[in-house]
Amino acid sequence: MDKETDKFSLKRDLGFFSALSTVMGLVIGGGVFFKISSVTAATGSPSLTIFVWILAGFITINAGLTIAELAAALPVAGGIYKYIEYIYGKVPAFLLAWAQSVIYYPAGISALSIIFATQVINLCNLPADWQIPIAIALAVFLFAVNLLGAKAGGTIQSVSLIAKLIPIILIVAVGLFTKSSNNISLFPITSGTHPDFWSSMGGGLLATMFAFDGWMNVGNLAGEMKKPEKDLSRSIILGLFLITLIYVSISFVFIKELPFHLIPGNQNAASEAAIRIFGDIGGKIVTIGILISVFGAVNGYTMTGPRVSYVLGADDDIVFSKFFAKLTKNSRVPLNAGIVQTIIAIIMIFMGSFDFLTDMLVFVMWIFSMMMFVGVFILRHNEPELDRPYKINFYPIPPIIAMLGGGYIIISTLTRQPTLAFTGIAITLFGLPLYYIHQFNKKKKSL
């Protein structure tokens, strides 16, 4: 492991506040504005809605701390792909990369493109049948922009980072202090008219997790921090705590401003709440800020996704490796990998809704998350002498909490949304024959 670590070691120049801002920037995305509709639809009450946001934050903090130990012990380029490969071998790591390439990134692009189109239609009073053309146009446009190079995509990310914080701050700061005619009861915690409390909580928890998307990458900071043993846990706990506080606050404002029965299934809830708080003109300005935020979130998936299948191609680990490893001539960004990702995203725009797509990507990624939680125990047992700049405090409590939360999400999805769950599993496992066929052909050529 020493040689591998030296080869891929990163420059350690991140301090605590840089790490804190990176954690928050990685996680906060479009889900903060739009998951309230599916969360309330699943929970059936304001009390359970707020509770699942708090519970999701608690699980995410423990999950982040668990992954942080892996990141500090294995500070290599490749992040979670390398962790899975190191602990379990090449095949599970390939399946993770495959799932990211054909589910995670395309589903993220398509889901947020659908939301972007929905908001444009609402803002500009356009016909509803414009949703799919606008969503496709956005996906294709951002793919084209990213062909110009990482600098172009990075510029969009920088602008959108500021844009997404402005509407959040305005909605929370003003919305919390405005009067409301809605009667909100946060205790006792109930599922409203929904008969099954545990199923409602599971559905709500799954829905909230898309808003926390990005938490798996926070551990990657370990290799770039000056003092990971001291600052890593602090930045993750404080960063994810502040994010949870933001999510709980903005969800409370939405429930406070809109009658509860108007929120479930309403993808325009954020815009309608902004209009109630700031009036028509102010509400539209805030909605434009939300649109820019979603625009940036789509760009994030568009920019980072092709790098996964490109690496598979460059390492000759996938069929048509040379095809996926092709770069653009001048900007040197993955060309064919980006084309394939965009095509899959467009297909998903036609076939799925925002909630179906986001729930599927969350479900699939939590399967691999569970593997990493278990992996902490495996490494502790098999490699007790492995250098760990950061070790989980109160071990084994945080990984156990993360495993309980992840297990509940997976089991709840299997029982509550079996079609979604088995679709995600089937697409992931479809990568197995492709992997073994390619390995067989490689051996055949080498003979």
Structure, described:
- It holds the Pfam family AA_permease_2.
- InterPro entries: AA/rel_permease1, AminoAcid_Transporter.
- It is found in: Membrane.
- The chain contains 18 helices and no strands.
- The protein has a single domain, classed as Amino acid/polyamine transporter I.
- 50% of the residues are buried.
- The protein has 447 residues and is mainly alpha-helical.
- The radius of gyration is 22 Å and the shape is globular.
SSE layout and pairing:
Layout: H1 2-8, H2 16-27, H3 31-34, H4 36-43, H5 46-73, H6 80-88, H7 90-124, H8 131-146, H9 150-175, H10 197-209, H11 228-257, H12 269-314, H13 321-324, H14 336-351, H15 354-382, H16 397-416, H17 418-429, H18 431-446
Membrane topology: Multi-pass membrane protein
GO molecular function: L-amino acid transmembrane transporter activity
Protein name: Amino acid permease family protein
DSSP helix fraction = over 70%
Order of helices and strands: HHHHHHHHHHHHHHHHHH
Task: Give the overall silhouette.
Answer: globular
Number of contiguous helices: 18
CATH architectural category: Up-down Bundle
How many discrete structural domains?
Answer: 1
- Strand tally, please? 0
Q: Which residue ranges are poorly predicted, with pLDDT under 50 across at least 5 consecutive positions?
A: 1-10
Q: Tell me the Rg in angstroms.
A: 22 Å
CATH topology: Amino acid/polyamine transporter I
Strand content: under 5%
Give the full name of the CATH homologous superfamily: Amino acid/polyamine transporter I
CATH class: Mainly Alpha
Mean pLDDT: 83
Task: Quote the distance from N terminus to C terminus.
Answer: 31 Å
Report the sheet with the most strands, covering strand number, pairing sense and barrel closure.
Answer: none
Structural class of the helices, strands and pairings?
A: mainly alpha
